Amino acid sequence: MIRRIPAIFALLLCVAISLAAATSSRWLHVPEKDHARSNPLPANAETQAAGALVYRDRCMQCHKADAMGDGHKRPALRSDRIRTASDGDIEWFLRQGDIGHGMPSWSSLPEAQRWQIVAWLRSIQ
Amino acid sequence: MLSTTFKGRMSMCGGLTICLIMLISTTAHGQDKPYFVTYSHDLEEPGNLEIETKTALARPDGGNNYGATAMELEYGTRAWWTTELYLDGQATSQDSTLFTGFRLENRVRPLMRDHAVNPVLYVEYENTSGADKTILEVVGHDGQADLAGPNGESRKEHQHEAELKLILSSNVRDWNISENFISEKDLGHDPWEFGYAVGVTRPLKSAASGHTCTFCAEKFTAGAEAYGGLGDTFALTMRDTSHYIAPLLGWQLPKGARLSFSPGFGLTDTSLARVYRVGLAFEFEQVGNWFHPSQGIASSKGGNQ
Fold this sequence. Notes:
Chain A is an all-alpha fold. Chain A contains 7 helices and no strands.
């Protein structure tokens, strides 16, 4: 039994590393087709203003008005994770949500409004 | 014609409820569609509480005008789990006003990703009297005759029922298409009863305007739903079942309020000829924070920036 302890410890370590890697590489789950998409809306002030209003109505209650989250479960949206993601990655994530971790799916929002949020998030990085 | 007493009772109850809710409402917008009977796979956002009144106005053949209201308290326990409490009541012209019971309901989303068709499992316990007229679902051989009796008699009947629904729902482009399969069982010796509800909705405009507005097209959602009974295990037949078709209109108001309206039309002799429904919903964001002062303060500071 004592000889098995290092093996069990190593297994737990592998699981922990895998979980950490999976968490930090969320965009790896995005299908290639979605990853390659770019925002079909023009990146102008009107689109960003509309995105800001949709953000205020739908997202601000969790991610806060400055999009910095609460430092705990509600992550900041001014971050490297957003900066390094493609437009398609962010739209896909809005559509899918992360239901197991508290982020609702926003597939019920019209697609144009999800792209408006993407445009606004780009503008605040 | 509605009697003056009846109209007075309805407007007083409605007015008091609306005033109370508006006093404490905060800005938040749910994802709900203007369905009255059909459920989509939208669940309440975690930590949010929605208070909604769903009122049905109708007059059954051989009965009096009535207004029945279900007050719904819907809480997002998790992103995949929503819990609801309904409190039902009704007022019947030239009769009485009474509380008709409560319902406890849970909706659980088993799949964590969005798919072409998204299932949600629905479980409900109902403790209502025979005087309940809210018509939140139609099952078995439900018909307008069930709604025509005097309150003094119908309130003596007690219903303890379990209801199971399979909710299937899809968002295709900007359309929502939802199908519900309903089975209901009186916990006594009555048979299983079955029903259905299907609905489709779409916002009038997809993209949001770049300015705050109340009457913009994107604030309105239109659609239709159809619902009815499918018999029971004693008589699994469409004979003597009720069926309705109902256009829907929803309006997203400022301060997290939502107004819905639906005129429903009966399609069989057993159905009510017409049933008018009005819904008014208010959503309260992150009510869990109200009981954790530090998080509540952080939240309100964020909201003021």
